[in-house]
Specification:
This protein is α+β, with helices and mostly antiparallel strands and 435 residues long. The protein is built from 14 helices and 19 strands. The longest helix is centred in the N-terminal third of the chain and has 20 residues.
């Protein structure tokens, strides 16, 4: 009895990346990591799974029931696939890195897993790429995060980007003047994030506390725009905490103006996502014409302290697949990542073919050998189908024993070289060909 045929489908919410898509993703990842490196950040790698409490701490993020959990058979403890990399880095800072001098500039890139319903814009497994700046509580540190995100967009050719900045401490300062239980407080924050003025009015009816604070909260959906928003927010700020938060936001904006980013920044006092997690400035990164954010971040001064090492921190993360979609939608062409040459050899003795391939690879060229036996026309069609721009042909009819043909497949042109001379020219860096 034959075995049943294996199932070739994959679970909902995950996907595979064919070579071309993988190449684009890796190119974008490399470009973003190079930006981080230029700003002095060093990459770290965290485990794919951790003990559940790393992600389930009070300040560990807004994951709700999205954590993918399983039992460690060795210990009986609950483990979790990482739902976010920032809590892992917080744990790393509080343990492995706690004796290093501050600040720490750490970068990362890797897949995360969330057990949420799969949507078109978000899978259950997706890739985060980001940075954490640990040990600084200054507005300039927050501005640096936004400037790096902007530089990543520019480096990828995304010119029409926008960064929305907010300050959760401003709202927390207003809420401190009200007697608001936890459940209505959560509903209120949700209504603010949706700019739902009618829902805000409904929730605030009957709430005890400062009428000025209520009026300020009702005004939040209108506090969106350029620097004129600061004056409006100041008129509504009815507590010292709100005023301090506003001044912090002003300082961050001033640094962003020094970076030349003012035209890309919008102030939004309804930017209050992950309200309990963030402790100050937060921001989101958007690209014109796309209905989803590329990522975002902000200040989270309480998280590392959850692991026994109180320390301020700020950072951001981008959704790598969303960034790739944005690059493709913007029509930005990424350099091809396949082989530069297909080497085709028809003689039994492969020594010359291997020497040519090695000479090219030693100079950084990507060379695939066409080992399969077939006619020249079939090999050339194979190269075209896989986007290989040039073919190197040895041993074909019409070629002398010590001769090779270099064919440009797009232009249909062909040059001929002596094999030894070709290898020397490649090694010396003097090889040229018509384009």
């Amino acid at each position: 009895m034959s075995s049943p045929q294996p199932n070739t489908t994959i679970p909902q919410g995950v996907r595979v990346f064919p070579p071309e898509e993988t190449a684009r993703l890796r190119r974008v990842e490399h470009q973003i990591l190079s930006v981080f490196e230029r700003w002095g950040f060093r990459e770290v790698i965290t485990p794919t799974f951790e003990y559940l409490e790393v992600f389930a701490s009070d300040a560990g993020g807004d994951f709700g029931g999205k954590i993918v959990k399983f039992v460690d058979r060795q210990t009986g403890r609950l483990l979790a696939l990482r739902a976010d990399l920032t809590p892992q880095i917080a744990r790393m800072v509080a343990s492995t890195l706690r004796h290093r001098p501050l600040p720490l500039r750490l970068a990362y890139s890797g897949p995360v897993f969330r057990s949420a319903e799969a949507r078109a814009a978000r899978q259950r497994e997706f890739s985060q790429i980001g940075v954490e700046l640990v040990g600084l509580d200054l507005p300039e540190a927050d501005a640096e995060m936004i400037a790096m995100a902007a530089e990543a967009c520019r480096d990828l050719g995304l010119q029409h980007y926008q960064i929305d900045i907010g300050q959760v401490e401003y709202l927390k300062g207003l809420l401190a003047a009200l007697d608001l239980p936890d459940a209505p407080r959560t509903a209120l924050v949700d209504a603010i994030s949706r700019k739902d003025a009618m829902e805000l009015e409904r929730i605030l009816q009957g709430v005890r506390g400062s009428d000025r604070a209520k009026a300020a909260i009702l005004a939040l959906p209108t506090l969106y725009g350029d620097t004129e928003v600061f004056a409006q927010a100041e008129r509504h700020a009815c507590t010292d905490r709100a005023l301090r938060a506003l001044e912090n936001l002003r300082q961050v904006y001033a640094f962003l103006a020094m970076y030349g980013l003012a035209e890309h920044v919008l102030i939004d006092f309804t930017e209050v996502r992950a309200f309990e997690y963030y402790t100050g400035l937060l921001f989101g990164v958007f690209v014109r014409g796309l209905g989803f954010p590329l990522g975002g971040g902000g200040r989270y001064d309480n998280l590392i302290g959850q692991f026994g090492y109180p320390c301020p921190a700020t950072g951001f993360a981008l959704d790598l697949e969303q960034v790739v979609r944005a690059v493709e939608a913007a029509g930005v062409s990424l350099p091809p990542a396949g082989p530069d040459f297909l080497l085709i050899e028809f003689r039994p003795d492969k020594e010359r073919a291997l020497a040519v391939a090695q000479a090219l690879r030693d100079r950084g060229y990507r060379v695939a050998r066409d080992i399969i036996k077939r006619e020249l026309a079939g090999s050339l069609e194979y190269a075209k189908a896989h986007g290989i721009p040039r073919a190197l042909i040895l041993g074909a009819p019409g070629l002398e024993g010590d001769e090779l043909a270099l064919r440009d497949l797009a232009a249909g042109r062909e040059d001929r070289h002596r094999v030894d001379a070709f290898c020397r020219a490649v090694t010396d860096g003097t090889l040229t060909w018509r384009t």
